[in-house]
Amino acid sequence: MAFNTATFITSAPSLAECPPETHPEVCFAGRSNVGKSSLINRITNRKKLARTSNTPGKTQQMNYYEIDGSFYLVDLPGFGFAKVPKKERDRWGRDIRNYLLKRGTLELVLHLVDSRHDPTALDEEFFYWMATKQKPFAVLMTKTDKLSGNKLAVSQKKVRSVLKEMNIDVPVIACSAQTGAGIDEVRDLILEFTNSNP
Ligand SMILES: Nc1nc2c(ncn2[C@@H]2O[C@H](COP(=O)(O)OP(=O)(O)O)[C@@H](O)[C@H]2O)c(=O)[nH]1
Ligand SMILES: [Mg+2]
Questions:
Q1: Which atom of ligand 1 is nearest to the CA of 28?
Q2: Which residue, by CA, sits nearest to atom 2 of ligand 1?
Q3: Is the shortest distance between the CB of 53 and ligand 1 below 6 Å?
Q4: What is the number of domains present in the chain?
Q5: What are the two backbone dihedrals, phi and then psi, of residue 70, each rounded to the nearest 5 degrees?
Q6: Looking at the domain assignment, is residue 1 inside a domain?
Q7: Domain of 164?
Q8: How many Cα atoms occupy the beta-carbon half-sphere of 36 within 13 Å?
Q9: CATH number, residue 76
Q10: By the 8 A CB rule, do 27 and 106 touch?
């Protein structure tokens, strides 16, 4: 069984409110509007499981979805959204770092970057931080349907070179929630890290 059932479990404002550590989990991180919720919907073949929005900065909690009764996908609050007051942004950063460091059942972090833009300073900071904490992560390049073949190749090369410069060796997957490109690869990665391979 793989991605047959998906159920919303809870919205947790911080680590303390997360569900008990009964299932392995994979989380989706990245700035607001990068496509986290859309990707979760596509991966689970559901149109409205995770709330998507044209208004960045809306999801301020960690949303838990249980897949096939065996693992969790977690939609994290987007970071780095300029219109949110600095104090609030700092709190999110602290809460998310706390979750990333201390959640015992977190098996993999998927960090999303927009395939149309170079990784931002915040993305690079995140790569570096994850690498120094030795947390397993992968980079997903989103919205590839918006790029022509050649531009996507250039963009992928850029992301890989940024990671290589930092001496970071992690999977990089180009995907689109709209066309479904790369989605099976993302699913396989999730199943591998949650030990849910059929
Ligand atoms: N063309 C295209 N648009 C996308 C894709 N993924 C997300 N979007 C759009 O980008 C916006 C933000 O998506 P959302 O999933 O809410 O981002 P989040 O804030 O990271 O959860 C929405 O308008 C989506 O429809 C994609 O793969 N292709
Ligand atoms: Mg979202």
A1: 20
A2: 143
A3: yes
A4: 1
A5: -125, -25
A6: no
A7: 6-193
A8: 28
A9: 3.40.50.300
A10: yes
